[in-house]
Automatic annotation (TrEMBL):
Residues 1-21 form the signal peptide. This is Lipoprotein. Keywords: Signal.
Amino acid sequence: MRKYKSLFILLLLLLVGCTSIDEVVVETKDIVEKEFHAGEKGVNVETETFSYYKPTSMEIIDKGTTNIILTEGKQPYILFVNTLEKKNSQVVFDSSQKDEEYLVHETFEHKDSFAFLQVLELDKNLYEVTVGVGGTKLTTETKKDKIVDSAKLMMQIANSVRVK
């Protein structure tokens, strides 16, 4: 009996650790919307055309006038800023549409800002995550277990962008 009890506990722990993509999608939507409504993080990076918040866990790998490549560990993030668009613009969202079946394709509005979240399955356990606010978007490719954290960081960055 004791042997079966230990086996049951082990199986339960394994099942709890296995999160389905549906659960990840719900959690990602919730955290992105929460971060969007939380407002801007403090700006800590200035470029010639815009400023933004960069988490301390990220490094700048390359930068141009409107594009910056960031990494967190080995995971790259591409930040694009259309400096002609305001925070309530949907131009970047409209241009980001693909003829694909998204796992998540959500939009959010708050005050004078428009935001979006897109998650697309690329391969087994590989997902493209895109987050945008107005004329800003960030994109990364990540594994299922990193979608929520990646999307949260991306919204913090996108929400903080201030065009000069």
